[in-house]
Amino acid sequence: MLRFVVIEVRQHLCCANVFLNFQQSITDFDSVRINVEDGLIRVKDSSDSTVVEVKVGEYFSILTETFSNLIVDQENISFRISVQNVKDLCQMDSMKESQQSTGTFQLEEGQNVSLHCGQCGSTLCDSQSYNKVREFPSGSIDISEFFCHHGPSFSDVLLPRNTDLFYGFQFVILNMENIRNGSKEREGHIYCKRCSRYLGETMFEGKAVKLWTDSVVMKRDKDAKTCDLFDADSQRNLLRLLMLKIINETSLPSPEPLLRNMHFTKVVLETSLANRKPQYLLVQILEKNLPVLKNDEELQNVASKDIDAIIHLLNVKLRVSQAFKLLYRLIEPDAKSNGGQVEAMDENEPPMLSYWQQDINILKLKISPFLFHDLVDELNCNSLLLPEIYRNNKDSFTLSYIFQ
Predict the structure, then answer these.
(1) Greatest CA separation found in the chain?
(2) Which domain of life, per UniProt (predicted)?
């Protein structure tokens, strides 16, 4: 039975790419029939009596004689159709209104707050107020560009005092003395003293600490419960915010409509695991804000309607969305940790990582291991929506989506 439907709508090219993902291999069916009508795609396989109808008439009209590029591969079928009367799907997307790439930081100067482990609730930093709450320079720019004049060394300026708290994309930076009693340090990595959850890493030769905000919560004196340091909406959309951050920091807008959503951005995402071993994700964003139609709920969980004693009709409810289309490759070096430094890498490791790291035009960004693994899981899952012939390339990169 059909599981998911994804339709890439390319308005300026007047075409749509349709991807159908099934629960089992196509070779297990005796037959699969696909009918394309003016505003409808109908799918019926031989495994049961259910007819799946995908209604697209409210988004575009199909030129029925343009069915082409048919690919049948394992659990996937894909094809291309020409379309006309295409609606502006970007205006219909409910996610369009917010384009900020960081989220709203919840802590204000002068507020009394305590910081706690997000797993066990143990106190990491006792209640105090912070006189200076400032955004930390982005990792994508030279720190010297963050200041309007040159005075003391930048490490002295950026080293937080006991009453300072700096923040950035899903992290906060504190003076090491603030959390010394509630944490323990191993080779530059910070762990909760009670439950040993990995919290972050040291900075400035151990004088400061960067804590990942998906491991830390705060508690205001007036509140009985803990809360996140960033607003709830940003916590629910971290992968989208991560993509927007990358886009915003590498954006070169084009006036040409066909090129406006193309974005050949490369980024090296790095994380450090709780066992102090590094992992890297090489990402190349091919398209941003790609209009797509897709169903969110797997079709086997959707109730069908009986037409008669034999035929069951299942209508697919499509949602208008936008997607980042990208290539990615996970690299896990066989490295040993020595005081937080990588000693050696597997000699058989391809040189791709080193090449990307040395390229000054490629963004390098370190993120928390929890966000890193959520991203990898999402990419792996969404890549299965594509036939293998599109999914994998000769450089061991995989094609996938991040849906907004």
Answers:
(1) 82
(2) Eukaryota
Angle between helices 369-383 and 238-249 (to 10 degrees): 90
Q: Which residue in this structure is represented by tokens 């997307």?
A: 93
CB atoms within 10 A of CB 103: 23
The CA–CA distances, whole Å, from 249 to 209, 242, 253 equal: 24, 11, 12
Question: E strands along 23-91, which residues?
Answer: 32-37, 40-45, 50-55, 61-73, 76-84
Give me the average pLDDT of each 10-residue run along the chain (404 residues). 92 94 91 93 86 93 94 94 88 52 80 94 94 80 58 70 92 95 94 95 94 94 84 78 83 49 78 92 92 88 56 86 94 58 47 89 91 95 94 91 91
Contact (CB, 8 A) for 21 and 384? yes
Rounded-to-integer distance, Cα 62 and Cα 83, Å: 5
Where would I find the H helices in 31-190? 89-92, 154-158, 176-179
Angle at alpha carbon of residue 336, lines to 332 and 340, rounded to 5° = 100
- Pull the structure tokens for residue 196: 């040993």
The pair of three-digit structure tokens given for residue 7, joined into one six-digit string: 């339709």
Alpha helices in 159-259 (DSSP H): 176-179, 232-236, 238-249
Cα–Cα separations (whole angstroms), residue 75 to 6, 21, 179:
14, 6, 51
Q: Which residues lie closer than 8 Å to 325 by C-beta, 6 or more apart?
A: 285, 286, 287, 290, 399, 400, 401
To which H or E segment does residue 358 belong?
helix 352-358
397 close to 85: Cβ distance less than 8 angstroms = no
CA distance 366 to 279: 10
Written as six digits, the tokens of 312 are 């069951």
